[in-house]
Task: structure prediction
Amino acid sequence: MLNKNIFTLVTIETDRDNSDCINSFKFNSKVINLQDKFQSIFYISVNIWVSEKNKNNKIKLISGGCEHMFNNIVISPDKKVISCCGLTNLKVNEFKIGDMSNVAVYREEQKYDFLKLWIKTEGAYSILNKIGISSDRISHITHPCEACDFLYNDSEAIKNIKEKYTEFIIPVINSYNLQRLMKK
Result:
């Protein structure tokens, strides 16, 4: 991607400030050469990794739309294009949208994906409530990515989306368009 002059951000997730993983990547001779050669288009970022096993570390931030949907492109280590930067990006088949050899797939495969548009505008947790998933079934969710995982992988959620999504098409599209206009 760098050789094609495409801005590239490598995000490393860690659960502590001084991670061996981060340092081994940052100080790798190939990475240092890339940083020198492509200073204006190659960046390294560190994100906080949220363990799925330790619920006490999770941030209770589950309401609102996903600001990352349509704004991030992820290339996995096996050179696949993934439409999600979150914890569950490899658990949701619908997020695996193509191969790195055709990055245009990122836009083409998503432009008519209503559920992703809905996640962008309202967030997965809100959708779960709107489609009638009982609060008892989703009370364990403490992170937006968990809600997305549940939305895409729970059989009741999938069934309810298929039955009810048409009720929400017009308000979601209006909300999406309004959000886009407000950013201009």
The chain has a mean pLDDT of 83. The beta strands are 8-14, 42-48, 74-75, 80-82, 96-99. DSSP finds nine helices and five strands in the chain.
